[in-house]
Design goal:
The complex is a heterodimer of chains A (about 140) and B (about 290). With about 140 residues, chain A is α+β, with helices and mostly antiparallel strands. Chain A is about 25% helix and about 40% strand. The radius of gyration of chain A is 16 Å and the shape is globular. The two termini of chain A are about 30 Å apart. Chain B is α/β, with parallel strands linked by helices and about 290 residues long. Chain B has a single domain (about 30-245), classed as 3-Layer(aba) Sandwich (Pyruvate Kinase, Chain: A, domain 1). In chain B, helix 4 (about 145-160) packs across helix 6. The chains are: A alpha+beta (about 140), B alpha/beta (about 290). Strand 5 (about 40-45) of chain A pairs parallel with strand 6 (about 210) of chain B.
């Protein structure tokens, strides 16, 4: 098995996921970050999106929809601190789809800057949730 | 005849028993809420510790020049006062309100325009009734803290500070020391005092790659940090509330128990007295024949 590392995903409410992974793909502020074992120490801001964790060599994947936050990598431990985190199996497909449509509509009809910003955030969260769905359920 | 007294006492005993049942139920509910709230408070610690640690590292390295640190002459001050929505929790609200009231009065006396941001019905009602300016209030949190609520309150405070509606924001809330002890506290929230962020000692060590740069990172983390601080404050205050309610309801249940046994004793004595006097009547009557 390829070298693995620890991943801890923490939200303000609880530790959302903890376990080993071979590789992790994390939505960073300046683009997706691919992390493998023995990564150099890193601190990065993250945006709402999908975190993909490969948990073994066979290629089994875990997908999680995350919100705003940041990630810290050091000594083969990835600490991902986000304000929300949903494991793909917990995402309600119908609700996610509806939230996505609603956010899109709202964004199109918004004019005030503040509301636009909120709608934009809601849209990116909804998109993240949809993206985290398993292929079969999409 | 003494029968009327017995009837009256029976009625009182019944009513005290009813009250006791209610206080007992409230104690139980508060106990389970306390447990949940305490668990959540503990669960939130890793996140908040990590965040504080990173903030400390950044503050130590980067030059802090964020508007949230800006110390302005204070002309308008905001007090965030965290109380409960419901009563029956002993002196919990009174302790917080007393401290807040004093601080607000002192602030007004010093010539500062002072407003209150009330979280919780009790605080809102107190300050409204006495004619203070209540800038905003939340009266539907019902003793439950979550990160959304932390974000709402935190963002409101930050917006008002950056928009220069207020030059200083303070929080008055109840710190959770233990189930038996809760201490009211008055802490500054904004501007952030540099000494609030943990010092360099804990921050030494790792040499990170920062993405984006440290300055930008600081700007990203700062709102998160502040929201988290507000969330932790709320969470602590609400845990205190449940603890206070549990303690006071448990005391009330005990008092009711004592009252019941005293009343029962008195009732029995009176009933006995009635029987004795009736017997005396009968015996006296028989002798007369």
């Amino acid at each position: 098995m390829a070298a693995s590392f620890n991943v801890v995903i923490t939200t303000p409410d609880a530790t959302a996921w903890e376990g080993e992974a071979v590789s992790a793909t994390i939505p960073g502020l300046v683009g997706y970050l691919g992390i493998w074992a023995n990564h150099a120490p890193l601190v990065a801001a993250t945006v709402p999106g999908v975190v993909t964790l490969r948990t073994d060599d066979a290629g089994s994947e875990k997908r999680l929809a995350v919100g705003d936050g940041f990630v810290e990598v050091s000594d083969n431990v990835v600490n991902l601190m986000v304000d929300t985190c949903e494991i793909s199996s917990e995402v309600d497909a119908d609700r996610a789809r509806k939230a996505f449509e609603r956010a899109k509509e709202r964004l199109e009809s918004m004019t005030a800057d503040l509301d636009r910003e909120r709608a934009r955030l809601a849209l990116s969260r909804a998109r993240a949730r949809l993206g985290a769905l398993d292929d079969a359920r999409r | 005849m003494a029968g009327a007294g017995v009837k009256l006492l029976n009625k009182r005993i019944r009513s005290v028993k009813n009250t006791q049942q209610i206080t007992k139920a409230m104690k139980m509910v508060a106990a389970s809420k306390l447990q949940r709230s305490q668990g959540r408070m503990l669960a939130a610690r890793p996140y908040s510790r990590k965040l504080a640690e990173l903030m400390g590292q950044l503050a130590a390295k980067a030059d802090i020049e964020d508007p949230l640190f800006e110390k302005r002459p204070v002309e308008r001050r905001l007090f965030v006062v965290i109380t409960s929505d419901k009563g029956l929790c002993g002196s919990y609200n009174m302790n917080v309100i007393k401290m807040a009231h004093k601080a607000v009065d002192a602030s007004i006396e010093a010539g500062v325009e002072t407003s209150v941001y009330a979280v919780g019905k009790k605080g809102a009602a107190f300050f409204r009734k006495r004619g203070y300016t209540v800038w905003q209030s939340h009266e539907d949190f019902s003793g439950e803290a979550n990160s959304d609520r932390g974000r709402t309150v935190g963002d409101n405070a930050v917006e008002s500070f950056l928009g220069r509606t207020f030059d200083e924001v303070r929080v008055v809330y109840s710190q959770f020391v233990s189930t038996m002890t809760q201490r009211p506290a008055d802490l500054p929230l904004l501007p952030i005092a540099p000494e609030d962020t943990p010092d360099e000692d804990t921050a030494a060590g790792q040499d990170y790659i920062w993405e984006p740069s440290q300055e930008e990172m600081f700007a990203v983390l700062l709102p998160l940090y502040l929201r988290n601080r507000v969330f932790m404050t709320l969470s602590e205050a609400f845990t205190s509330e449940h603890a206070a309610r549990m303690t006071s309801m448990s005391a009330a249940t005990e008092n009711a128990g004592e009252l019941i046994s005293a009343l029962t004793m008195q009732r029995n004595r009176e009933r006995q007295a009635a029987i004795t006097s009736e017997l005396l009547d009968i015996v006296g009557g028989a002798n007369a024949l």
